[in-house]
Structure formats: C-alpha cells, structure tokens
Write a structure and sequence with these properties.
CATH topology: RbsD-like fold
Shape: globular
Number of domains: 1
Order of helices and strands: EEHEHHEHEE
Number of helices: 4
Strand content: 15-25%
Length: about 110
C-alpha cells in the first residue's frame, strides 16, 4: 500500500461495494474476531491514522476500548457509519472477519516507515 492508501477491516455484516476488493476471512460466527485481524494487520502495516464510526462510542464501547488499546497513539478520526460505508469504495481492499458485534469496522490509512 502507498502513503495515504486505506484498507478496511470489519464485521461480517458490513456492506462492501461490489468494486472493492474483498478478503473474506470469516469461517464461522466470531472467527476470526475483528480484534485478532486488526492486531495482525497492524503488526505488518505502518498506519498513520484510523477511522471509526462515531456510533461505536455508544453502541459498542467495549470494542472501542480494545481498539484504542491496540492502535495506541495512532490518531483516531470518528466519522458517521454511513460515510464509512461510502468511503469503502476508495479503499484498496476490505477484510471481512467473523465478528458479529455492532460497528466493529475500521479504515486504516497507510503511513510511511521513514
């Protein structure tokens, strides 16, 4: 991925535009989890910013806390869930997990290692 490119990771129910590359990892409900996939992707990708749905603050605060722990000091921008769905058409790919909790979706903006 190039600087400023984005990739999405999300739950099993996230609607993804037909022209967006899909990587479907879901093998059963909850497997793999959103957090497992996010953690592994972040170990391989330099990320300069993440985007989360504003709705996660109220609808899934436990998942938000887990995300914040994993992304550490990486800046987080909250956007409307509907905006996130539209932004998926501009991502390089979307990784579908087996996650079945609300608003477990994220966009990762690629940074540079130097």
């Amino acid at each position: 991925m190039g600087h400023f490119d984005t990739i999405g990771i999300g739950d099993a129910g996230m609607p993804v535009p037909s022209d967006t590359e899909k990587i479907d990892l879901a093998v059963e409900a909850g497997l793999p989890s959103f957090i497992q996939v996010l953690d592994n992707v972040l170990s391989e990708l330099q990320v300069q910013k993440v985007y989360l749905a504003e709705e996660i603050k109220i609808q899934n605060p436990e998942q938000l806390a887990a995300i914040k722990k994993i992304v550490g000091d990486t800046p987080i921008e909250f956007i409307a869930h509907e905006e996130m769905k539209k932004d998926l058409s501009d991502t390089k790919a979307f990784i579908r997990t087996g996650e079945e909790t609300p608003y477990s979706n994220i966009l990762l903006e690629s940074g540079v290692v130097f």
